[in-house]
Amino acid sequence: MKNAAKSKISHSLRLVIFFLRLTLGLNFFYLGFSTIFNVPLGRELGARSFASLYQWLSSGAPTAIPVSHVQLYFQWAFLIIGACLVIGLFTRLASIIGIGLTLAGYLPTVNFSAVSASQFINDEILIIVCLLVLVAANAGSYLGIDSFMHIHFAPRHKKSSEE
Questions:
Q1: Interacting residues of 143 by C-beta distance below 8 A, sequence separation 6+
Q2: For the chain, what is the radius of gyration of the CA atoms?
Q3: Which of 58, 131, 137, 152 has the most CB atoms around its CB within 10 Å?
Q4: DSSP structure class, residue 58
Q5: Residues 7, 94, 103, 105: is their CA dihedral positive or negative?
């Protein structure tokens, strides 16, 4: 029964999903790496997309987190998500968090007073849809560490002797 479930997706489609996971992972990793180690680029990207989110997260509470720390957390999150997607570790979780971070960067840029089709046809929406494909296809099981973890750490069911 287990082999029947695996054979639903053809080998060529598994390779496409693997390369999609690898490409998205490298994209997230590069974005995180370049913004962490290229400070002017990090500031520019933060000011363009995450500025209002950083201000909201760092205000309001008596123990508010400084904006620079929130920005650093997001940068490291992109780097870690990219690494997880590349090696196929916790792929579903990394994809879901990646969707959240992409939405967090996309929603502040949407002008809801003048909605146009161009606001909804862009790179962020494409990345979100691709990450949804990774979640739905269980992409970590295709040439990733998730498949190793599933085989070696899955609970083993004992056959009952009452049959």
A1: 18, 88
A2: 20
A3: 131
A4: T
A5: negative
What's the full length of the chain, in residues?
Answer: 163
* Cα separation values, 49 from 43, 82, 108, 142, 159, Å: 10, 19, 6, 33, 54
Through-space distance between the first and last CA atoms of the chain, rounded to whole angstroms: 19
* Cα 63 from chain centroid (whole Å): 28
Contact 101, 46 (CB under 8 A): no
How many CA atoms, within 13 angstroms, populate the side-chain half-sphere of residue 160?
2
Contact present, 54 and 70 (Cβ < 8 Å) = yes
pLDDT in tens, 42-91: 666 666 655 565 565 556 655 556 666 777 888 899 999 999 999 999 99
4 vs 142: which has the higher pLDDT: 142
Residue 116: other Cβ atoms inside 10 A: 8
Residue of 93, 147, 97 lying closest to 127 (CA atoms): 97
Which residues are CB-neighbours of 156 under 8 A, at least 6 positions away? none
Residue found by looking up tokens 């620079």 in the block? 68
